[in-house]
Amino acid sequence: MANWAGRFFRKSKGGAVLPALGALLIVALLQLVGVPQLERLGLLLFDGYQRAVPRPYEDAPVRIVDIDDESIRRLGQWPWPRTDIADLTRRLGDAGAASIAYDIVFSEPDRTSPGRIAARLQRTNGNSPTLAALRALPDNDATLAAAIAAAPVTLGYFLGREGRGPTVEPKAGLAMAGASPAGAVQAFSSAIEPLPAFRDGASGSGFVSLIGDRDGIIRKAPLIASQNGRLLPSLSLDALRTAQEAGSVIVKSTSASGEFGGGAAQVVSLKVGGFEVPTTPAGELWLYFTAPHPARTIPAWKVLTGAMSPAEMRAAFDGRIVFIGSGAAGLRDLIATPLRDREVGVMVHTQAVEQMILGRYLVRPDWASGLERSLLLALGLILALVLPRLGAMRGAVLGAIAVGGIMAGSWGAFLQYQYLLDPTYPVLGLLAVYVVGTGVTFYREERQRAYIHRAFDRYLSPELVKRIVDDPGQLELGGEVREMTVLFCDIRRFSAISELMGPQEIIRFLIAFLTPMCDILLARKATIDKFIGDAILAFWNAPLDDPDQHANAARGALEMVARLEQMNDVMTAQSATPWPGDVRIGIGLNAGPCCVGNMGSAQRLSYSLIGDTVNLASRLEGLTKYYGVSIVIGAALRQHLPEFAILPLDRVRVVGREAPEQVYALMGSEDLALAPAFRRIEAMHRDMLAAYAAQDWTLARAWIAAAAPHVAQFGLGPLHTLYAERITRFEAQPPGEGWDGVFAAAEK
After folding, report:
1. CA 647 to CA 662: how far, in whole Å?
2. Which of 623, 591, 622, 596 is nearest to 607 (CA)?
3. Contact 486, 613 (CB under 8 A)
4. Is the pLDDT of residue 483 over 90?
5. Of 405, 422, 429, 639, which has the highest C-beta tally within 10 A?
């Protein structure tokens, strides 16, 4: 047996099996102890599942009355007088609400009560008949307490972990089926409760505290928690109990019905009235969110102002659980959920009750961890044993099939059964086995590759060296046709600048200019082809694929212009590096097919590109001087940048091309495109061009005049001056009916 094992490992290309198995064991140990950062990957994957397939909205008997911005505008700033809250409570009760749950904690007296106003006035005005009249008016808090006592109200309270306060007395007990799971649920020590008068008259009460995962996202709603060892229900759970006029909530733990397997008791499920709710061991409900749905929410002002008729009120609230929360901009109890970064807290309570009523649950089965561990060990062991014999490519295919099967199984379990099965550790185990196995197998080959890198790194770009190492045939002459994005950048008035400097100063200036420009281009995944004096030729999507080539090129060009603005401010004030004042550049960008590869002679190769796309990019750079803008792009690239701030410039027939080209000015990123100021000037500019094309010189001139106060902000003054001069010429010598609006460029 020992001889067989020795022969097997010797045949396994340098004993790659043992290191691969060691990597698998490490991942298995990490899964056993639990690593929060890795577990978060699974949670993020579950978030992606929900975003892809959110819970379909079904009309459950649950509504939200939202204290939104319009309600604040109509009814006054928050907090409203308790008489308004009492009126809201009465109206909902009269409409037949089964439970009225406040995601608001009324923990302090109403300072707008007549008696409290009288006490404040007495300190400044002494006694007066007005004060006596105020004291005789009903107390606002007493009015609200009476309304709460007359309606099925469930009040909220906060639980905290700072200090230790009186233990909350729940409105209904939590009966145990099995041992108490108080040690498994979220534990708190303090509480902020409603005023006693409100608390005594309420039909129910529950905590509203929501604590997200380590990344702050709320994925689970706690249905029970403990304070000073006592189990307490959440607002959503007690609202459901109140709506059914049920007695206690039954908490089923792992020691009930023979389910206890050792260790402290944990929660299995909760029974409230006619509903049994599966939970996590900590008594939480995995939340399965729906997309926002307007039928769920009714603004508070519609209820309080009588905008809804009694029949409409009945239709909206009769027999329903109504949650009241604050969604106004200044009041929002904002939380992050898998579907939305900014969601109001009351939505969590609402959707939790919807799930409990509809029976639509996300479930992480108790056998999930065992299945994930089994997959990790079984598939990892198989891959570790066969990888040395398959080789890197076929091993990668096998690993990819295994990873794809795991991911498909996880996704299918979610779609079909709403099961949450985490593929993180099995996938990580396969990756670890593959990386370690192939790393050991090709250690010697990589040393040889490193030698080639050291020999050529000083002469070629790292990407080209990598390609030569991977495929020495790359040294052959020839190229391939690819869809690419090309950039030409040139310093304006460089001849005049160079006249003011000596040769050494010119070199130092170019180094100071080209270095940050190239840093930007390389950071945006560009390949820098060559420097032509002060000009830069760069391109995207070769030698490596870049699916974001167009956006990378646009952002790179914008960053180059912005960086030069900073350098003009900073470098002019320095004396170490020569800087000729306000340096400007022009950038031409174009996209299209190019032939790229090793060009040159048999004695000297250069990785470069050729084609009409390159020539046009060079002509577009030249047009920046004519139109007075920094970045000019072609029509082909414009189609790939729909979200960027772009203005049409002209239809131009450039030197060397017969077909006219629609050219555009790249003004900024998506943020600028959405700015009101840009959208205003964009509309004016397009209207001006439309009038110009229609030979309506008067209207075109009017649009130029209307845009005049705004053009300086975007550097469009020279462009509109250019069109004004054209219009003057055309007014004197009209172009005629056959005019196609194309400008023929006379210079490159």
Report:
1. 11
2. 596
3. yes
4. yes
5. 429
pLDDT digits (tens, 9 = 90+) for 367-425: 999 999 999 999 989 988 888 888 788 888 998 999 999 999 999 999 999 999 999 99
Closest CA to 476 of 611, 329, 601: 601
Q: Which residues pair with 250 in a beta bridge?
A: 175, 271
Q: Of 112-126, 295-309, 519-533, 545-559, which range is least confident?
A: 112-126
**Alpha-carbon distance 311 to 298, whole Å?**
15
User: What is the rounded CA–CA span in Å between residue 18 and residue 130?
Assistant: 91
Q: Is 295 helix (H, G, I), strand (E, B) or coil?
A: helix
User: What CA–CA distance (Å, rounded) separates 533 from 547?
Assistant: 31
Alpha-carbon span 641 to 633, nearest angstrom: 10
Q: What is the DSSP annotation of 308-331?
A: S-HHHHHHHHTT-EEEEEE-STTT
- Single out the residue of 614, 355, 604, 308 nearest to residue 481, CA to CA: 614
Q: What mean pLDDT value characterizes the chain?
A: 87
Return d(Cα 477, Cα 178) in angstroms, integer.
79
pLDDT digit string, tens, across residues 128-162? 666 666 666 778 889 999 999 999 999 999 999 98
Confidence of residue 459 (pLDDT cuts 50, 70, 90): very low
> In degrees rounded to 5, what are phi and psi of residue 152?
-80, 80
Q: Is 197 helix (H, G, I), strand (E, B) or coil?
A: helix
Q: How many Å apart are CA 204 and CA 236, to the nearest integer?
A: 10
Hey, where are the domains in the chain? Answer: 2-55+367-441, 62-109+154-358, 445-470, 476-670, 675-748
Query: Which amino acid is located at 35 in the chain?
Result: V
pLDDT at residue 604 in the model: 65
Q: In terms of C-beta density within 10 A (0-12 exposed, 13-18 middle, 19 or more buried), how is residue 736 classed?
A: exposed
Per CATH, which fold does 476-670 belong to?
Alpha-Beta Plaits (3.30.70)
* Residue 695 φ then ψ, to 5°: 60, 25
Residues 565, 278: Cα–Cα separation, whole Å? 61
Q: How far is CA 57 from CA 288, 360, 420, 637, 693, in A?
A: 11, 11, 20, 41, 51
User: pLDDT tens digit string along 653-689?
Assistant: 988 778 899 999 999 999 999 999 999 999 999 999 9
Contact in structure between 734 and 644 (CB atoms under 8 Å): no
Residues contacting residue 172 through CB under 8 Å, at least 6 positions apart = 204, 233, 238, 241, 246, 247, 248, 249
Burial of 712 (0-12, 13-18, 19+ CB in 10 A): exposed
Q: What CA–CA distance (Å, rounded) separates 76 from 85? A: 13
Q: pLDDT tens digits for 345-366? A: 899 999 999 999 999 999 999 8
At 620, list the tokens.
């577009």
CA distance 221 to 337: 11
- What type of residue is 649? L
Instruction: List, in sequence order, the alpha helices (H) in 548-661.
Output: 549-571, 612-627, 635-638
Mind listing the pLDDT tens digit for each residue in 275-311? 999 999 999 999 999 999 998 999 999 999 999 999 9
SS (H, E, C) 140-153: HHHHHHHHHHHCCE
- From CA 274, how far away is CA 297, in angstroms rounded? 25
Is the separation of the CB atoms in 312 and 95 below 8 Å?
no
Q: How far apart are CA 196 and CA 148, in angstroms?
A: 12
pLDDT band at 1 (very low <50, low <70, confident <90, very high): very low
Least confident of 220-229, 438-447, 670-679: 438-447
